[in-house]
Amino acid sequence: MKKSIGIDVKRPKKKCKDGKCPFHGELGVRGRLFVGTVRSTKAPKTATISWERQHYLKKYERYEKRISKVQAHVPKCIKIKEKDVVKIAECRPLSKTKHFVVVENESD
After folding, report:
1. Nearest alpha carbon to residue 45 among 11, 83, 18, 25
2. Rounded to two decimals, what is the model's pTM?
3. CA neighbours within 13 Å on the CB side: how many for 93?
4. What residues contact residue 76 under an 8 Å CB cut-off, 6+ apart?
């Protein structure tokens, strides 16, 4: 039986035994989804993901670009590298700074 994570994403072809994998482990996803670019994969099982957003300045009646940057857990069944576009989902806190998990590599 295939486990559904409740999000319309492609399932990874590879299997893993990672307990923090939403597809093959016990990790549930909830909350918000973001699409961003991988900035760094130097830490083990972790990637730094960032995306641009627009913030309105009322005084100047204009928008400015801002960058959001988060740490996300990378399951062993999903292969990513720097500059890949990935989809991340919010989950329970996995460590002090990780509250997201990579659920799909959209660059493939």
Report:
1. 18
2. 0.89
3. 3
4. 14, 16, 17, 18, 21, 45
